[in-house]
Specification:
Elements lengths: L12 H14 L6 H28 L19 H17 L3 H4 L2 H6 L4 H6 L34 H13 L2 H15 L11 H9 L38 H9 L7 H14 L1 H8 L2 H11 L5
Length: 300
């Protein structure tokens, strides 16, 4: 099993889990074709959204321990699952070194990822993207042709449009766009900075706090009370379909609003794992069961 490419799929658990999910949605075998079709479609949509959410996490939600030179060329291009596996091999480099017999090269055979002895050969530099199997770099459902010309993959036109629009914007909008481009260009840098001590001491000496002005143009800001404006950092206008609350949470977590079902299922999992605590919090079983029922897949 450790000599073939299986990408971590060594059992039939995924198939069994999908079968169980389908039976749970159908509930019984008495439904007509329309009911079964609709139920299966909902289940597939949930699975599709869960995969899209995992793609978004790999693209935007990365631990700070990966923001070092070693993983610089992989961030935003390699799945989070693959990054965690590579991280374990990086920890083995000190004990394995260049010795292939001690390394075993299992990760390369089974997942197409660089093993400990291969990582040792990279030294203190960054791990090259070409050392990762293409399956671990698919972070989208889009079918990209392998024979596209370099002109089709060029972003020169996009950069030209961005530069033109950038010159026409006000200062606040320019700051917003520049911050987003910096995140793309320098993913290894963190957005967390130490507070300005001098500014803090200056404000403490003043009799009143200065007016706080948003640093970027926020849509629909005028629809909120003026007193809330200094504390609003972003507004997301999600689709109105009864799931807008879950869509807003998914959007702010960086998963995209279409992953609302994943948020809902995570809440259901949370309620199930900590039943006693939430029963006590909600003041009884009736309220707990009501909330749990509202989150079940068949009620979505």
């Amino acid at each position: 099993m450790d000599k073939v490419m299986h990408l971590g799929n060594t059992t039939s658990n995924r198939v069994e889990a999908a079968h169980w999910s389908l039976k749970r949605v159908l509930q019984n075998s008495m439904g007509d074709l329309c009911f079964c079709w609709d139920s299966i479609n909902k289940m597939i949509i949930l699975q599709h959204n869960a995969i899209k959410a995992s793609f978004q996490k790999s693209l935007h939600v990365v631990g700070h321990w990966f923001k070092v030179t070693t993983y610089k060329k992989l961030l935003g291009f390699v799945s989070k699952y693959a990054l965690n596996l590579i991280s374990e091999e990086v920890d083995r480099v000190k004990s394995v070194g260049f010795d292939k017999s001690r390394c075993g090269c299992t990760l390369t055979c089974t997942h197409g990822l660089p093993c400990a002895c291969q990582l040792a050969s990279f030294g203190v530099g960054s791990i090259p993207l070409k050392s990762v199997h293409v399956m671990c770099t698919r972070l989208s459902f889009e079918d990209i042709a392998t024979k596209q010309s370099s002109s089709e993959l060029s972003i020169d036109k996009e950069f030209e449009v961005i530069a033109k629009r950038f010159k026409e914007l006000d200062v606040a909008s320019k700051v917003n766009i520049k911050s987003k481009l910096q995140k793309i260009a320098f993913p290894e840098k963190t957005s967390i900075y130490a507070p300005d001590i001098s500014c803090a001491s200056k404000k403490s000496n003043e009799g009143s706090l200065p007016e706080i002005v948003p640093t970027k143009c926020i849509p629909f800001l005028d629809q909120f009370p003026v007193g809330y404006h200094p504390y609003i950092v972003d507004v997301v206008d999600v689709k109105v379909d009864g799931h807008c609350g879950y869509r807003a949470v998914a959007a702010q977590l960086g998963m995209g609003e279409d992953s609302w079902a994943v948020v809902r299922m995570n809440l259901l999992k949370e309620l199930s794992e900590w039943r006693q605590e939430y029963v006590q919090l909600f003041g009884g079983d009736d309220r707990y069961e009501y909330l749990k029922k509202s989150l079940l897949v068949e009620h979505i």
